[in-house]
Amino acid sequence: MNSCKNIFQIPPDLNDALYNVSLVLLNSHESIFAPQPHVPCMVEIGGFHVQQPKKLPEDLQKFLDNAKEGVIYFSMGSNLKSKNLPVEKREAILKAFSKRREKVLWKWEDDVLPGQPANVKLGKWLPQQDILAHPNVKLFITHGGLLSTTETVYHGVPVIAIPILGDQKMNAKNAERAGYGIVLPFPELSEGKLSELMDEILTNPSYTTNVKQRSRIMKDRQIDPLDNAVYWIEYVIRHNGAKHLRVPYMELTWYQFYLLDVLAFLLGVVIVTVIIVKKGCSYLYGKLRKSKDKGKQDTSKLKRS
Question: Can you say where in the cell this protein is located (predicted)?
């Protein structure tokens, strides 16, 4: 807050800032999400943070290179720590991993993992992008965060997603719908369920086929997403805020924005129509009554005569 005050002598009004946005950089892409309609000042740069694979540390490189049956990479991200898993969930995961032919690389934030199987290698911090880029990595067990999802799609690795919070459930469901992942709800996590899902993904080639197709879509761009972001930022600067990209509704008054003027007009049309119909019906009813009364009078005269 103090640093903000040093920059802005008068704190900006958030509403003014919201309606004075020149450019929106969206961390999304159609390879991950369903296509969405955008206005010109909204630019997709999903995958901008993904970098070319770098050389792995010697121990990791050797571990991955020697994994002839493949590698399962397990990480719950930087905010959710595997060491804080409930004991029963940790034990279930360990038992499932111990029965695999594949090697397992686990982001584990403590010095010791009780009951660590021989095929499991630990790391308090792991270079995730470089690991996913290795051809021996066959499966990524993840929490389903956006950055992890983007990286696994870019490198073409199918996932088992165990979403915990935020957008993770949405990302996990998207992966499942797109056919390159399976959702494993945390309450349902057990040795049997995890083993079943690992077998499904590692023996069914459709998951890898689907994610590699998504990878090709993400990489097939006219311009690198980071270069695209730089271009549009500089474009807005060159054109003094690029107001010509702003859609007209940003300038609407509140009653126009909520279409109250349109609703008032439509309501007026309905009221006028009802009044006209009512008066027309009253007029026709009156004419009909007069006609009936005249008929009764004529009938009475005939009877008297």
Answer: Membrane
